[in-house]
């Protein structure tokens, strides 16, 4: 196996192994892949036969809103990777453009949604977790610099290791979404609260992690009052309850809510949950 930096690879592999069964696993998996290939963007999803795309991880800096507002809300069904998986695509490393050329479809997806993402080149690593369930790790470049044959070969050599790690993290007898603390539904239900989402997990450690994430969520964009309103919304409180707790009018709460939605580039409480859960996953 050709390794760019043996020491970096060994350290990343050790961290991935030690993170099995923890909230950090998917992020460590992405770091392991990054020792083999450089990319601007990484996105990890799970697809289940007949089910929606499940979000696991991303490090997107450009047009990240497209992921939560469009892709996970239905556009994924037009993704050539999703369509190829539905027709029995096997484990491997695939270039998006190759799949598009082979399928002879996807012009709407490529010309409209995909163009808006800014990705110019994309590789997809496909792992079969269990029957009818796949993990897909997407690597994107914002410049038109193709992934070389050597880069693709390194990733193909890495696939058996990635597969073994993922099968340990997600045993065949478990449900991927229920098992992993790093998994969130693509569209969290508007009536859910953060407490409901973390109850099945290790309560003490996860509660502290959630409290830290709530305290830092939106800090760079929101005013202190908007942060307070966002935190209370995430804990399942409605406008009336928030107004009473903060000692302000309901109309004022609605204004704060409108402003924080605008600053975070979201338009619903479901999107607020999705935004926060990603912050929770990536927040150390």
UniProtKB/TrEMBL annotation:
<protein>
    <submittedName>
        <fullName>Response regulator transcription factor</fullName>
    </submittedName>
</protein>
<feature type="domain" description="HTH luxR-type">
    <location>
        <begin position="215"/>
        <end position="280"/>
    </location>
</feature>
<keyword id="KW-0238">DNA-binding</keyword>
<keyword id="KW-0805">Transcription regulation</keyword>
<dbReference type="Pfam" id="PF00196">
    <property type="entry name" value="GerE"/>
</dbReference>
<keyword id="KW-0804">Transcription</keyword>
<dbReference type="InterPro" id="IPR000792">
    <property type="entry name" value="Tscrpt_reg_LuxR_C"/>
</dbReference>
<dbReference type="InterPro" id="IPR036388">
    <property type="entry name" value="WH-like_DNA-bd_sf"/>
</dbReference>
<dbReference type="InterPro" id="IPR016032">
    <property type="entry name" value="Sig_transdc_resp-reg_C-effctor"/>
</dbReference>
